Amino acid sequence: METWGLRYGELVERRAERQPHLPAIVFEGATLTYADLAERIRRFAALLGARGVGRGDRVLCVSENRPEMLVAAYACSRVGAAFVPVNVASTLDELRFFLADAAPSVVCAGTDADTVRSGSLPDLPPVVEFDEWLREPADAHLQPLAEVGPDDVAVICYTSGTTGKPKGVALTHSSLHWNSINTLLGLDIATDDVALVNAPLFHTGTLNMLAANTLYKGATLVVQRKFDPRACLSAIENEGVTITFAVPTMLTLLERSPEFDKARIATLRWILSGGAPLPPDVATRWSAMGVPVIASFGLSEAGPSVTFRRRDEVARKAVSSGPPAPLTDVRVVDESGRPVPDGETGEIFVTGPHVAAGYWNRPDATRDTFRPEGLRTGDRGYFDPDGDLVIVGRSKDTIITGGENVDPVEVELAILRHPAVAEAVVVGIPDPVWGELVTLVVVPVPGESLQLEEARSYLAEHIAKYKLPRRIAVWESLPRNPVGKIRRNDIQTTLRSERNPTS
Question: Which CATH number does the domain housing residue 445 bear?
Fold first, then answer.
């Protein structure tokens, strides 16, 4: 049955038929045309088929960023298997969990293949090393195209696991197809764009929002193994990069790089930001350099696209995440599930054809999150008068102190305007009197310092008294996961273990 581009990655192959000689991927000085890319996809599908991989199977991928990750992802869809990318920095315990949970038929690996083959992983399926595969002859025409259904699982992306064990988000061919249409309707990706990818491709935002849709549009993708400020600036300048994705930490590190110069980023049209709240001053600085930073709201369970801020409103609306994408409906509800008026904070529910099918092997978690009334995001926010969504934090991160609710993101965004503060996070620490103490953890600007009373005095001009921190800790850095999200649980654990976390 003809599905007209619905199969995951099919639009890349259709692009190759129409523009075979145009550049698709640039990687470490080498360029793959769309014809090259399509040929590699067919070859890798033949290799998977020769190893018995077929419809309904899973293929685990452990690799740094490289073109073969995308080749493997789209090859899996040709044979009907699900592509399962995981963090290349995963520990052996984490890999054991992924292997047990996903039960893959094959593991494909990049330069860390030796770690995968170390002998410490029980029941390890066959391992396909990318560098070995590229030297292996294969007939691209031996493997027939598998018939896949819209509801077949195409990709399993594991959540970042900031709390507890990661959950595998089961994204179907249909949900990824509609996610791409939603993204291309809500985000300005042009056929002549050059998109830089150096955030991890195992994350659905990088894989399915920027990388896939750049190729679907027939544009050029520049892939780097990982984010490095110097290499990033060099790629922007030398490859004429026009669009990219960056979490706020990456933007700050770019600005602080000794090689940073506004002339080196002159080709950038916009930067998409997500994964963590975007401090308004960061957005303002980049806008002043002529590069709007488009804040977005999304989550793995939604494919991930939910909202995109309008490019021409970045400077005016620094805290907005923009309106819902055209195919997405968003409701903000109270604790009883009733919609709240615009301007009032509540929990965010999402509906749309791009929402995932559920969690892999987690029926209870699926029922709790993927509800008949929509996807329960666990995020809190409100709609402003223009219909834009403003995120104020996670429901589970809300601090209850003295019977009052405190959204930590509000406090964080306020203290980040202090000239001595480079990074900040606010968490609640159990207290027998207050229930939880509002606790501020700051990373100061080099050469600066910040004491509790100074922080409270500054914040008193911006937020209500009951939201002021009662403790402060000054750290050299904040623990983050590979996509830039702050590990609040790790911070809380550390603070609880310290006898005196105040300064």
Answer: 3.30.300.30
Is residue 87 one of the residues assigned to a domain? yes
pTM to 2 decimal places = 0.86
CATH of the domain at 345: 3.40.50.12780
Q: At a CB cut-off of 8 Å and minimum separation 6, what does 429 contact?
A: 436, 437, 439, 471, 492, 495, 496, 501
**Amino acid found at 238:** N
Strand, coil or helix: 122:
coil
> Measured between alpha carbons, how far is 486 from 233 in angstroms, rounded to an integer?
25
Q: What end-to-end distance do the CA atoms of the chain give, in Å?
A: 66
Region label for 120, one of left (φ > 0), alpha (ψ between -120 and 50) or beta (otherwise):
alpha
The partner residues of 32 in beta bridges, in order of sequence, read 25
- In tens, the pLDDT along 411-432 reads 898 899 899 999 999 999 988 7
What is the CB-side half-sphere exposure of residue 40 using CA atoms within 13 A?
23
Q: What are phi and psi of 427, to 5 degrees?
A: -135, 165
Per the structure, the count of domains in the chain is 2
- Look at the block and give the residue holding tokens 């004429």: 240
